Amino acid sequence: MNTSFSIAPRHAVALSTGRKHLRMQGWDFTSPGWYFLTVCTKNMRSEFGTVVNGRMTLNEAGRIADKFWREIPRHFPRAVVDEQVVMPNHVHGLLRLTETGWDIDGLTARREAFGKPVAGSVPTIMRSYKGAVTRALGRNPWHRRFYEVRARDDLARTNIRNYIRRNPGNFDAVVNGGEPQSLGNKAVLDLPKVGFLASRGQANPHGNLPLKPGEAIISGFLSPMERAVFRAGLASKRPMIWVLPHGLNTLTACRSAIEEGRLLVLSPFETAIEAPSARRAVWCNQYVLAHCNRAVVGHLNPDGMLACILHEADPDMEIVRL
């Protein structure tokens, strides 16, 4: 049975589960615009190569996945391929659909309905890409779904391009970086862990954090909603793991929680690094998703970095939206 970790009971809302709720519901995927797209492998298996010293080294399957992505505009004239990267177990790409016009089947763009694919739409492009890679490999490496973020302005597109470029380095640090420095009770790592993630831009939480018995909360505790959860966790003596975007420093405000074995603080960064940065914050959220058993998501900016990061999680992981 679930337990509720109350942070704002007056504003409790119904919860929805499943990654499909991270999709843009009701969006016309034939619309001109910029789309950050992610497709993962089945069971997050490493199909396309490995990361060595922060750089992606593609195997034959990875080279095929990379080649076919770059060739998307040859088959879909409205599509423009921007920044992209093939990772060991997923592919990221920023893709632009130009203004509505004639596609390869001579059809003008229209809304795609379930079971009625439309030529030139984002879902059709992704199905064609995944199918081409599958045929070339002679096997299907893909998870059944893909994920998207609508990059609505220049700032969002710049942030997403940087995110894609830095992805191999972050992946290397999260997966191959070894054990980070720690302060506190390492036994907390052995507990089942729920990752809590929320975008910036919302000062007050809007619901309860649903917890299962014995779960520890793991988070970077960076955004206002995350910090509210952290304060409530200290007050209720909930076991927590704090992933810092800077070096381990003296944490006087939560010293008692550390000494009592309820709080473990982790950081891969040198002690001399005293302030967070956007890149280190991204790493923290990626670390949280890589090491939690399930995730709870609070406030989510639709084209922010957290929306991008969530699509790197195991597609079969339980993700609950507040």
Write up what this structure looks like.
With 322 residues, the protein is an alpha/beta fold. The chain folds into two domains: 3-19 and 178-321, Rossmann fold (3-Layer(aba) Sandwich); 31-169, Transposase IS200-like (Alpha-Beta Plaits, 2-Layer Sandwich), CATH 3.30.70. The protein is built from eight helices and 16 strands. The strands form four sheets. The protein has an eight-stranded mixed sheet, with helices on both faces. The protein has a four-stranded antiparallel sheet with strand order 6-7-3-8. A hairpin with a 3-residue loop joins strand 6 and strand 7 (90-97). Helix 1 packs antiparallel against helix 3 (122-137) and helix 4 (154-176) crosses helix 7. The longest helix has 23 residues, at 154-176. It is elongated, with a radius of gyration of 21 Å. The two termini are 18 Å apart.
Key traits:
elongated; alpha/beta; 8 helices; 322 residues; 29% helix; 16 strands; Alpha-Beta Plaits; Rossmann fold; eight-stranded mixed β-sheet; disordered N terminus; four-stranded antiparallel β-sheet
